[in-house]
Design a protein that fits this description.
It is a single chain. The protein has helices at about 25-35, 55-65, 75-85, 100-115, 130-140, 155-170, and strands at about 45-50, 70-75, 90-95, 120-125, 145-150. By secondary structure, the protein is of the alpha/beta class. It has a single domain (about 15-170), classed as Response regulator (Rossmann fold, 3-Layer(aba) Sandwich). A five-stranded parallel sheet has the order 2-1-3-4-5, sandwiched between helices.
Amino acid sequence: MNSNPVAAQIGGKQQEVKLATSDGLTGFLEQHRKMNGALRLDQTTIVLVEDDPASRESLTLLLEAEGAHVVAVADAEAGVEAALRLSPDAVVCDLELPTMDGFYLIQRLRDHEIRGDHAPTVAVALTGHTGDAYRLRSIGEGFQHFMTKPAVPEDLVTLLHDAIDARSAG
């Protein structure tokens, strides 16, 4: 992959306008196209909640390149609506969002799943906060996974693939 660790990552605020065409994402997508393996997120639906337009676009491109159907929204309320309407395989949610945060989204989603006796949706908290307090709160509130920004494309895809497969098998 790319030797520049910053360019090979997605979702960091330091990568504003050029994020969608950064060497890291472009290199990852080109490497993916050359591989003859199956798409790792084929036939999955993912709700992506990210308020930064460049990060949202980059993450959408990444997940779609792996075969996922992505519904990308900019705030928690739209994320809740999309998740309740679609019953996605996974939700990837930034924690720092305008008006209502990602914790609001996961509380609403988990409440809906409990009341409707639905299996829990795979939920990944995506945040720039690296402290243990945020990680523990995320897991305690209902996210199964926690990933810091900027996210390494391969790590995010692998995490989603493995978590969705485990949910399907269980």
